[in-house]
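Problem: given the chain below (529 residues), write out its structure.
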Amino acid sequence: MGIPSTDSGNPVLAPGLLWDQFTAVPARWPMDDRKTRRSDYPLTIPDAVLQSDAMRRACAARNFQEIFRLVNRRTGTSQAVMAAAIGNMTSSRVSDVIRGVRGIRGREVMERVADGFGIPGDMLGLPKRPWETRPEGGDQAPSSTCFEEDQETADAQPSSSITGAAGHAMYVRRGEVEKTRRRDAVKLAGLAIAAPAVTAKILEQAAAEAIEFTRQAEASALASDTLDHLDLAVTEFNGAYSLKPPQQLFEAVLDYRRKVGALLKGEHTHRQGRELLAFAGWLSELLAWLAHDLGDARTGLAFATDAFVHGQQAGHGRLCAWAMDAAASINLYEQRPAQALNAARRGLAEAPADHPLTVRLHAQAARACAADGDTEGFTAAFRAAEDTYQLLPPRSPRRFGVDVLPLAEYALTSYPATSCIWLGQADRAHQYAERALASYQAAPQASRSPSREAIARIDLALAHAQLGDPDDAVALGHQALDSARVVDSVRNRASDLTTYLTRRYRGHAAVECLRERLIHTTQRASGLC
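Solution.
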């Protein structure tokens, strides 16, 4: 039976292991210049793959998802081998990149990918890689260190162009040199040729060690139902977010976050560790929003960062993206549009392209541009949000049992309403705000958010005020303050409304009444009355 081969023509020894990755090619065999220069690298993708149109397009666009996919599927290289070749990367991270769950960011990582796969720097818009420059005396290909018997036989046969005693002596010396090199390589690798009895003893000990390795990998101090309990708790906390007072919920969630932190320090399996990291991240993401609702931006941003870091450690791109969604909103309410835009972009680098969260993050970026007075930036980012929404799959994903599509739809109405207010486009703001309010009111009970609905009323009130209708603006302002969940973001936007109304309609009795009500509401929330 012949040796099976991949579509690149490389015979395969085992899944993910190519023949030309397993063997070192003898100096007299033809080998392309790139492979010669990269003889010390564990992986060099074949020219047929490197020069393919698909690879060229992927490199030009820095589409690392496609680059990884091509290396994995067209060369048969396993994800573990790819990760080892790149360095400082796990096979699960490689899998996430291939599936589009995570991206490749940062020049240093891109350079490691280029060096790991053997992609010339100019194909990725990077400087020439060190291995692309031929070292002095580098014209000669490295000698093989594999298939010793075949090599010795070949060494003993002089070439037809070299005859006589001189040729024979040359090949005898060459064979001796090759044998010495092979013995030195074994010594460098820390190996030695042992007697059969010694080898048997080593194997017996190795079997016992393997059993111990397995026991250690499965060792855990977690109770069997701990992870199930945490999953239920996180689900219930998220369901209570819009229903319970934020102070009460913050204390309960923080208690669970501390407990998960303690579990992470204890004994658990690697799989359990990843799940605990994810639970820690989800709890911190919720704490970021609750701190924001309580008016503590510093604490909110700290927990958003903690959620992002734990999401990275868990290999959970969506968690990272949700964390940056929270960071973008908090920064916007703190009037830091540049930081909000950066957070939205970091989230987009982690979010799946066909997920409603991606729509929301594009809309966050649009809102940040509007807050900075960048009309063109707002238009471009909001168009990206609308285009992404059109390409969402028929079945929407769920987050802790709740459909997340409404969050994307809210972002396509509420966020542009706020943005158009900031850009002075009152007519468009009025249209978007009415659509946002209708969307909130029509949402299923599980997806209703009283605070978001109150903010939609304030946006509509501001549009009325800008269009010269203070009475309707005041009425909508009172409706917003009637909400069951007047958190800090609602009070913040209500302050924008009363400030604008007081400045434009000075002395208007109804405006003054709304302003005084907001002052009383804020003092009550602060415990001052």
